[in-house]
Amino acid sequence: MASQSKVGFIGLDDLSLELAASLLRAGYGVQAFETFSPLMDAFLKLGGVGCVNPMEAGRGVGALIILISHADQINDIIFSHEGALKGLQKHVVIILHSTISPAYIQKLEKSITGNFFLHISC
Question: Where is the 6-phosphogluconate dehydrogenase NADP-binding domain (predicted)?
Answer without folding.
Answer: 6-113
